[in-house]
Amino acid sequence: MNHTAPYPIGTPGTPWGAAEKAQWLAGQVRRRSYADEVVAAIEPLRSKFDVVEYGTLQYGDERFPLLAIRSRDRNDALPVALVTGGVHGYETSGVHGALQFVRDHAADFAGRVNLLVAPCISPWAYERIHRWNAEAIDPNRSFRADSPAQESAALIKLVEPVRDRVLVHIDLHETTDTDETEFRPALAARDGKPFEPDGIPDGFYLVDDSENPQPEFQKAVIEAVAKVTHIAPADAQGRIIGSPVVAPGVIEYSLRKLGLCAGVTDARYKTTTEVYPDSPRATPEQCNLAQAAAVCAALEYALAHP
């Protein structure tokens, strides 16, 4: 039986309308700066990479430049590697792990692949440390042609010219304690559904594409990350976040059907990373390192098995 208190916005069993969404939005507080923490970190990369503004995110009086980092010496004969982070703004290592990969490792892939890195897809949510955008929409359920999320639509437009040439796409995420204490309860309340408590996996795991699984690719990423941080074990039912574990640290979703970022291309190799920053066994630095290690392993495997 569910004994959790009702979410403080809305009426249990009734989906939110405009009034409830406005109440939710009024409670969102800016807690950090996209300009200071992300844009400022991207600026020094202009000396070695092309930085493109692929759109502008606007909510009320707030405007955020959407920035992507590309290989400077692009070669159309080479495949494209897409790296995305910050689809959920509160998942900090997704953003900073992507930037750490560019700073520390991207040069290792020069002349081998055309890199396209979008490190912070949801800057409004980054500043609020939230999962949703300002319209209470989850961008990571909105990657489709008729996307209701500005963030998702902008990335789709960015990727479209190279979509057919993307060999590998790695989308960097986190699973946090606030998933269980805030975001899942808020989702249930927004949709007028009961909240069903679940556990939070302690460690790193991956989400493969159930429509095109690549188990050896996922295994290579898991093995690389295991040198940096621990891998999440299955629960007593053999699951991670409710999905069957198909290999150590790996579950599967139907990426495109769910409108997930990792399904935005037809890349042969696709995965979503999930680190656990609230673990007593991991530090923020380890989480960033794990994300960067995952990207390197994903690219190395894909280039070795085109």
Measured as a percent range, the helix fraction is 25-40%
Q: Which structural class fits the helix and strand makeup? A: alpha/beta
Question: How would a crystallographer describe the biggest sheet?
Answer: 8 strands, mixed
Taking pLDDT < 50 over at least 5 consecutive residues as the criterion, the unreliable ranges are none
Strand order of the largest sheet: 1-2-4-3-5-10-6-9
Specify the overall morphology: globular
Give a nutshell description of this structure.
The protein contains eight helices and ten strands. It is of the alpha/beta class.
What does this structure look like?
The protein has helices spanning 18-26, 34-42, 92-104, 123-128, 150-159, 177-191, 215-225, 284-304; strands spanning 49-59, 62-71, 80-85, 114-118, 166-174, 205-209, 239-240, 243-244, 250-253, 269-275. It is of the alpha/beta class and 306 residues long. The protein has one domain (18-304): Aminopeptidase (3-Layer(aba) Sandwich), CATH 3.40.630. The strands form two sheets. The chain has an eight-stranded mixed sheet, with helices on both faces. A hairpin with a 2-residue loop joins strand 1 and strand 2 (62-71). The longest helix has 21 residues, at 284-304. It is globular and about 55 Å long. The active site is at 274 (proton donor/acceptor). InterPro entries: Peptidase_M14 (IPR000834). Residues 30-302 form the Peptidase M14 domain.
